[in-house]
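Render this sequence as a predicted structure.
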Amino acid sequence: MKIGDKITGTITGIKPYGAFVALENGTTGLIHISEIKTGYIDNIYNVLNIGQEVLVQVVDLDEFTQKASLSLRTLEEENHHFPHRHRFSNSRYKIGFKPLANNLPKWTKESLEYLKDRK
């Protein structure tokens, strides 16, 4: 088992701070309440049940004790598609700041002429 692995397990205990999971490879792990799902969890007992089978991802592993920190949230977030936004260019055109660089000499010239006219 290593960080990033996805593994199934059974919830064996629930506490206000998280859920204990017996993994299929014989080790145990904890899903901290912040790693259960995105957003606020008012009552962990309404989200998870003892005996529930879960697919979790290993986010940290103590190699000495073979205990794992687990996450359901990372798997949930994998399924979400967040739009990729560009402020200064269109994502279909890989032009980046090129239009700004091309227009900079013209804008500089216009600005200098404007300042000369103001004096």
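Summary. The two ends are 73 Å apart (CA to CA). The mean pLDDT is 84.
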